[in-house]
Design a protein that fits this description.
The chain is an all-alpha fold. The longest helix is centred in the N-terminal third of the chain and has 35 residues.
Length: 74
């Protein structure tokens, strides 16, 4: 594995970690603030779906990193 590929894998891994952490913080804050502001269940469900999309995107990013690592083994 070259140094450039190592750096690219590390960068993609850090980006996936940032997306996961950011989505988690967003979800927690949206839940707390939504409860305090008395938002409707429909609006709060929208925030839940947004968080679900963020986590799904992070899983996709992790899958891409895994694929890149697998391509280097062969």
């Amino acid at each position: 594995m070259t140094v450039e590929k190592d750096k690219e894998l590390a960068r993609r891994g850090r980006m996936a970690a940032i997306v996961i952490a950011g989505t988690g913080v967003f979800w927690i804050l949206a839940t707390i603030i939504g409860g305090q502001l008395g938002l409707t269940q429909r609006t709060r469900a929208l925030f839940d779906l947004m968080a679900l999309a963020g986590f799904a995107w992070a899983v996709w990013m992790i899958y891409q990193v895994w694929q890149l690592r697998q391509s280097d083994k062969g």
